[in-house]
Amino acid sequence: MKGLQIEHLEAGLEAKIILTDLNLQVPAGEVHALMGPNGHGKSTLANILMGHPRYTVFKGTITLDDTALLDLDVSERARQGLFLAFQYPAEIPGVTVSKFLKRIADLRPNPPLNASAFLSELKQNLAFLDMDPSFVNRYLNDGFSGGEKKRMEILQLLTLQPRFAIFDETDSGLDVDALKIVAAGINRMRGPGFSALVITHYRRLLDLVKPDRVHILERGHIAASGGFELVELLEKDGYEGIRRLIGTTT
Ligand code: ADP
Ligand code: MG
Ligand code: MG
After folding, report:
1. Residue 18 C-alpha to ligand 1 middle, in angstroms?
2. pLDDT at 250
3. For this UniProt entry, which segments traverse the membrane (predicted)?
């Protein structure tokens, strides 16, 4: 089991409470989807998990395997193997993709043994993402197209090899090719030591990722959990359908 465990979380933005008694488990080896209406706290949860300094935890616990996350700052959480998909520097002048990825690889508990081991791993990842090897000599985010930014994000994921990853609407506005890259990256990471929370409004990513479980976050807590049938119900009847299913009304 282990993986990510959130218990009785009460948290929000600065002094404002947004999440109330939120309980969620993402066992090691599983990929879960998190859906829910806009403004109900999904991004708040992602930011709380990453340790964003503007967000406040009032009550509750979050553990990743045996580590209490709430005691750790952002960089300590990254070192513990947490990855937030939208979190990467906008542009770093003078730092190449290769240099940046090397730094990320060195954060791992099992960093590459030497420069040539790193480069051969990087080559494999580039081939997997169907990218030209010369990409790694470019400066970080300097003139990257939308598709290149997305590939860069997935390169970071494959390089960090995190224990837990959060994708916060990383599929919004993507064309089909970019969507396939994101899904392929997540699916490549799948395995006993990896779990993830995929926040999305759309079925099209979930059709490719095939989540082990689906949660609906509404009014600051997990209102329903189930299998892919929740995605189908949502597509058919919207959140009204989910409320009918669990017997709540607006
Ligand atoms: P979701 O990701 O589910 O759309 P959010 O976690 O972004 O929801 O937002 C939860 C609540 O926090 C909303 O009520 C929203 O109005 C509020 N909120 C989000 N960002 C800010 C902000 N920068 N300043 C003030 N309130 C915010
Ligand atoms: Mg939103
Ligand atoms: Mg959001």
Report:
1. 8
2. 53
3. none
DSSP three-state, residue 119: helix
Beginning with the edge strand found earlier in the chain, give each strand of the sheet holding 164-168 in spatial order.
82-84, 164-168, 195-199, 31-35, 213-218, 221-226
Q: Rounded mean pLDDT of the chain?
A: 93
Provide the token pair at 179.
């969507």
The DSSP result for 132-197, as a single string, is -GGGGGSBTTTT--HHHHHHHHHHHHHHH--SEEEEESTTTT--HHHHHHHHHHHHHH-STT-EEE
Q: Give me the percent of the chain exceeding a pLDDT of 90.
A: 77
Which residue(s) pair with 31 in the sheet?
196
**Taking Cα atoms as reference points, which of 25, 72, 65, 27 lies closest to residue 48?**
72
**3-state class (DSSP) for residue 104:** helix
Domains in the chain, CATH or no CATH each: 4-88+162-246 (3.40.50.300)
Report the candidate in 142, 137, 135 with the shortest Cα–Cα distance to residue 154.
Answer: 135
CA distance 166 to 184: 15
pTM greater than 0.80 (yes/no):
yes
Between CA 247 and CA 226 the distance in angstroms is 15
Q: Which residues surround ligand 3, an ion (CB under 5 A)?
A: 42-43
